[in-house]
Amino acid sequence: MHSFVPISGAHGDPSMDRRLKLTCERAAIRVALLVYLVCAGGAATAQENAQEVQRSGSPSQRIPQQRNPTTGALQGMVMDADQRPLAGVEVRLVAPGGGRAPEGQTAGDGIFRILRIAPGSYDLVLTAPGGQMFRRGNVRVNAGEVLSVEIHLGDYQVALRPPAIPQLPAELVGETSYHELSRRPDANGAVVAAKELELAPDNLVYLPRPDRWNAEMPNYHRYPGNVEAPYVLGHWYDPFNRNKFKGDSPIRGNKLFFNFTGESITALDGKRLPVPSGQSTARTNESPFFGRGGISFLAQTFRFTFDLFHGDTTAFRPVDWRIRVTPAANINFLKARENQVVSVDVRAGTSRVDGHVGLQEAFGEVKLRDLGPNYDFVNLRAGIQQFVSDFRGLIFADEQLGVRLFGNLKSNRIQYNLAAFDLLEKNTNSGLNTFSRRGRDVAIANIYLQDFFVKGYTAQFSYHFQRDNGSLHFDDNGFLVRPAPIGSVVPNSPVTHRVDAHYIGWTGDGHLGRLNVNHAFYQVLGDDRPNPFRNPVSTNGKVTINAQLAEVELSRDMDWLRFRTSFLYASGDNDPTDHVARGFDSIVDAESFAGGQFSFFNRESIRLTGTGVALNPGDSFLPDLRSSKDEGQSNYVNPGIFLYNAGADAKLTQTIKVIGNVSFLQFARTQSLVFLQQQAAIRRTIGTDASVGVIYRPLLSDNIIVTGGAAVLQPGSGLRDIYTGKTLISGFATVRFQF
User: Fold this and answer.
1) Residue 538 gets which letter from DSSP?
2) pLDDT value of position 248
3) Does residue 650 have a pLDDT over 90?
4) Which of 9, 414, 448, 560 has the fewest CB atoms within 10 Å, i.e. the most exposed one?
5) Contact present, 689 and 600 (Cβ < 8 Å)
6) How many Cα atoms are found within 13 Å in the side-chain-facing hemisphere of 288?
7) Any bridge partners for residue 387, and if so which?
């Protein structure tokens, strides 16, 4: 409880009034003293835009108990004979006997400032760019004063004919070229401002070059000795040096550029995991529950990106407009050891060769408006485009047909996206786009806030919505994927499984001191009707979605090593027969988390016997019981997962990076698996996933990247209950060439 004393002495105590008045006077003196000391310490930095001020004389009486100043300051402007400010002139004060005081240099407006100068007489020495020197003697600086001067260097030519050797002795600055403007107390803080002068014509300052992009360079070696580093003029087939087809110079005028990127991606994948033998095994007179499970897959993909844009090649300046097209072609070969892997028709055998040509990008982009001088902007992009909706690709990451409004604010501290996508069907065996719509709409709004609460941490808040009107669909190999072939399928219904889901999320990425932090939390709400687990005749199969996902990754960099620990939780459904679906599922995820592409459980799809669905769809940690990641539908009646991970990244050399991970996996709930498999009980432990991967960049660039890895999954009790107890093995290699 605070008490307040009346100013007017309401209680009739005159002595209290006097004491209060004296206290206020002392406080005012202390405040005035503080203001004086702040101004005196930074007198030459206040009022940057003030006009030239003339003051003289000092206060006849100083504030009581204030210490006398012991230093002075010098400020001024240096100009040439045409009254143009001179930048880059070094200013020195030389004391008698050779002693030196603090130094300064003129800025772009010709102004210099030198603070904390000991009182005395000095020689003022100015050294112009190029070495020409000027001297003015007997410049007196007094304690407690700021001396303002104006200096004209009449014989100095602005960077046109700098002398080869500095002139010694220095030229003397005469009375007509040196003007003492004022001597004033340093507590007042006024400065000399640049005069508004008409600049000289450009041809007196620099020599313009009509074509700065094709300046000829001599054929010389940049380094002495036998170092093989000559200057290279560049050719159309050379992506490392000047190349008009790589956006290094405009193809027309000064603003129109073209950039071609060609990619070759060769991928080899081999895995050993049990495969259901189906109605007919690949071998006569043999009918085990699981057949031989070795599968090999080889794929070759070519991507060609044609990018035409108007603007600049600098990364921080957004383009004025852009047109980009990326066709892709894929040919792939699959070799299995059982029937009904390559096709639903057992007569197709155990191997398959397939190919597809798709359009992965085809969009136009235009800048709608510049929002500030620091390249804040708002752009609009329409067409087939790549979009990843959060830091780790947990909800949506794909190349799809859509419209996107995006930009930034506050000097790029705030970034935002508003996007709507009409998803295209995917080719089953290549994963490339087809030209058919699939009846699935996605809307996304997100905002990124840099330095959110603490510097170095970026927060993202997002909203996702998907509406999937999943009509009946078979994939290119003849398997039913929509709706999932479990529960009841209504073949004559125009909409056999509709999903309306809303995702609300907060993700973050950055560092707190030396600790790197990445985290995410998503809540999904909505309706799923009719869900395959429900009876559509009696209840219409409608369920309400209420599911969550949370993840966090902490890492620490120690020289060439990064140590990581990760945790992921996706909620699971505890009762597949009620009216609430509690299992978390994404829209189209591509998770870069806990080992990502190197992890067995994330990389490989584990098909469940007799169900037509997979425990996990491949390229995803979520055990969502989908029929297919690309062509299937989100399913929110699933077991969910707990994932605990520890890993390390090691940069062994400039070209080789090794990634190691160990993860322990558990189901969050198993009731949906019990219902699906019609088993009495299923335990929770999935198993231990261990992997190692290598990334090799022989050219220290992304033009050639060789990636390889191997992973094993040792099944736990829960995976043994529904699948197998054998150790699951996977190995892969990818070679990427880029022009």
Assistant:
1) H
2) 85
3) yes
4) 560
5) yes
6) 9
7) 398
Give the model confidence (pLDDT) of 40-53 as tens digits: 344 433 333 333 33
Distance CA 170, CA 74 (A): 21
How crowded is residue 503: how many other Cβ atoms within 10 Å of its Cβ? 25
Q: Please state, in angstroms and rounded to a whole number, the distance separating the CA atoms of residues 666 and 686.
A: 5
Q: What is the pLDDT of residues 670-698, one digit of tens each?
A: 999 998 888 888 999 999 999 999 999 99
Residue 375 to residues 257, 321, 417, Cα–Cα distance (Å): 19, 15, 17
> What is the number of H-type helices and E-type strands within the chain?
5, 34
What is the average pLDDT score of the chain? Answer: 82
Q: Which residue has the tokens 């998803």?
A: 423
Percent of the chain with pLDDT over 70: 77
* Token pair for 195: 């005069």
Taking residue 602's Cβ as centre, other Cβ atoms within 10 Å add up to 26
Burial class for 614, CB neighbours closer than 10 Å (0-12, 13-18, 19+): buried
Check pLDDT > 50 for residue 17. Answer: no
Q: Which of 676, 669, 556, 655 is nearest to 611 (CA)?
A: 676
d(CA 634, CA 639): 13
Handedness of CA 231, 236, 239, 242 (dihedral sign): positive
Token pair for 705: 């990247």
Q: What does DSSP say about strands 580-581 and 543-558: parallel, antiparallel, or unpaired?
A: parallel
Q: Residue 528, class by beta-carbon neighbours within 10 Å (0-12 exposed, 13-18 middle, 19+ buried)?
A: buried
CA 444-446-449 angle, 5° bins: 170
Q: How confident is the model at residue 279 (pLDDT cuts 50, 70, 90)?
A: low
Q: What are the tens digits of pLDDT across the range 286-328?
A: 555 566 778 899 999 999 999 999 988 767 788 999 999 999 9
Residue 239: which of 735, 704, 736, 734 has the closest Cα? 704
Instruction: Return d(Cα 162, Cα 181) in angstroms, integer.
Output: 29
Q: Can you tell me the distance from the alpha carbon of 572 to that of 570, in angstroms, rounded to the nearest whole number? A: 7
pLDDT tops 80 at residue 25: no
Residues 6+ apart with CB under 8 A from 414: 408, 447, 448, 449, 450
Element (H, E) at 685: strand 685-696
- Give the span between the Cα atoms of 524 and 450, in whole angstroms: 25
3-state secondary structure 100-153: ECCCEECCCCCEEEEEEECCEEEEEEEECCCCCEEEEEEEEECCCEEEEEEEEE
CB-CB contact of 594 with 661 (8 Å)? yes
| Statement: residue 187 has pLDDT above 90 | no
The residues, any chain, with a CB within 8 Å of residue 352's CB and separated by 6 or more, are: 333, 334, 342, 343, 429, 477
Strand duo 543-558 + 497-512: pairing = unpaired
